[in-house]
Amino acid sequence: GVFAHLAALEVQAHQAALKQEELEQQEEKVARLKERVQELRLQRDELRAKVDLQQNRRLGKGGAMSDPVQPSAQAVLERKIKSLKSMLQIFYLTGISGKLTKQGVCFCISTAYEGTYLDSYHVDLVLKPEVRILRHSIPIFIPLEQISKKYLQRDIRRFMSVLFDHLNAYAGRRYQADQLQEHFSDHIEGTLQRNSLCNLLVFKYDVSKNSKTFPFQARLIYGDLCLSLPTEVLVSCTPDAPVSLAEVAAAHSDLFRSMALHKAFRSFSSTEHIMI
Amino acid sequence: MDETVAEYIRRTVLKIPRDEIKTMLQKWGFLSEAQLQTINFHQIKENISQDVVQLCEENCADIKQAAVLDIIYNHIYSNKRMWSVYQMKKAGDETEVFDITSFKKKFKRRLRSALKNVTVNFREYEDNAIWIRIAWGTPYTKPNQYKASYVVYHSQTPYVFISASVLRSNLPLLCQALVVASNYQDIREIELRSHSLNSLKDIVFKRYSQNFQTYYPRPLQERNVAPENADVRIIHENKNEKERIQRVTLEVFGDGPQPKLEFAQYKLETMFKSDPKMDVLDNKEPFRCLVKFSSPHLLESLKSLAPAGMADAPLSPLLTCIPQKARNYFKIKEKKGLFPGSFVSP
């Protein structure tokens, strides 16, 4: 009846599936063995090359004096590798270096500020089917999403350049704030007030060290995230400060706008007796 | 000094391990060095805490100062609490010039406008972490200082770390205040939880070790392998395989320490696939099951599975994607299509 028929069909299907599986397994086995053959061939070639090199060496040593002007293949290779490595080192030092990966390219951004190397960050890009970021180590407060939305698809170079500017400027701002905190903490009241991007710094300070009063109040706003100098500086005097200091405050305001923060402090803390 | 404040300070000091009490009181800065000298820190904790309360009486401590001591304790022993991660979303693209004074003002104002009886305290740390402690009351009762919520926020980031108290009913208000104060629009909890606050930060701030391919050579010392066995008679079988496993593990996990998570949970809603002959729930409904991996340090143990020979390398991407996807709760559904497999829902 119907059941018997169904049972027969089931058996047929099962057998067909088994045959199919056997076939697949065979094919897999063949592919694997082919791969193995390739591997062994490669190994054989490598060993051959090694043997040749050894023989050449032995001939060179035992036989006639080897020509010192003629460099051996080994030496040439080593020189090439060395020059490549130094080329890569140069690229690394300029700030952006990249390495091709299986799926795309991995960029390394190295930041620096006025001769001091600071942190490095990475962006791993996939190029097909469209350019996108696979993973990265960019700090979360850098507007990476914004930047990639604007540039990544159209122009990778531009994207890297803008990202580099952001990271480098951030590193510079943070470096200045750290330097100020580290070397001029005796000029500042308490600790420097800052934020993650270091684009707002607020502090009270004095030109002389270890003074009990801090007549100057500074508020530095870095409106452009790609710059490490402030776009807006407000230096005011506390209400009980002598009126003469107002001029100094104005001078400091210009100073902060035009040079690195810790350098500005260095300049007026060492010449405190000179009124600018 | 208020009785309740005295009791609260006493209980807080009792929580601190005896050897740490002096350092913590120094960090607190409320009692002078001279006052601290008068305390015998070798006596039993009961007595130490009594002495501390006595000195706080002299200085007229109020709940605000007591709350600061509590924040300091929780900052050092943050791993005693379970932390959840929340993500905020912004609509606009304007550059944020985050001002902490305005943040604190907006946050307090938002909370107090909805609930008069709250104690709110802030403490900033050098790594730009802003710790907020909130003790909740009701319109008719004073804030319960023993069930405070703690929030950790880094300015100009979309992530907030919250260790809420048992009173989850205050969570919506807390979220609202955070969004308003930080100039975001929306906030939701993400599927990431752990006792290790720093590991959570490492994961979402992408500070954990990822193995990026670069040309910059790593210092050679790092690549020193243990000296090979001098005895030539000992051969390492499967040396190639061992090296392959090491390489793959390094590629996936990087060579630095892993963020510390205690568990990963997978909720399966996939079809149970069995041998057609066995006729067990075959393709009728999704087989609901929950798989939970627990460990004192989950990611480190996953990293050591393949080198220890307990699993094949590479490990399943469901396990290795945890830091990248910033989650340790997953829902796995059936993939619709020709090949029944599984796909992880976003």
From TrEMBL, chain A:
It comes from the Eukaryota. Signal peptide: none annotated. Pfam families: CENP-O. It is found in: Chromosome, Centromere; Nucleus. Keywords: Centromere, Chromosome, Coiled coil, Nucleus. CDD domains: DRWD-C_CENP-O (cd23836), DRWD-N_CENP-O (cd23835). InterPro entries: CENP-O. Residues 6-57 form a coiled coil. Its main location: nucleus. GO terms for cellular component: Mis6-Sim4 complex; nucleus. Belongs to the CENP-O/MCM21 family. This is Centromere protein O.
TrEMBL record, chain B:
Pfam families: CENP-N (PF05238). GO terms for biological process: CENP-A containing chromatin assembly; chromosome segregation. The keyword Nucleus applies. One of its GO terms (cellular component) is chromosome, centromeric region. It is found in: Chromosome, Centromere; Nucleus. Keywords: Centromere, Chromosome, Nucleus. The keyword Transferase does not apply. Belongs to the CENP-N/CHL4 family. This is CENPN protein. The lineage of its organism: Eukaryota, Metazoa, Chordata, Craniata, Vertebrata.
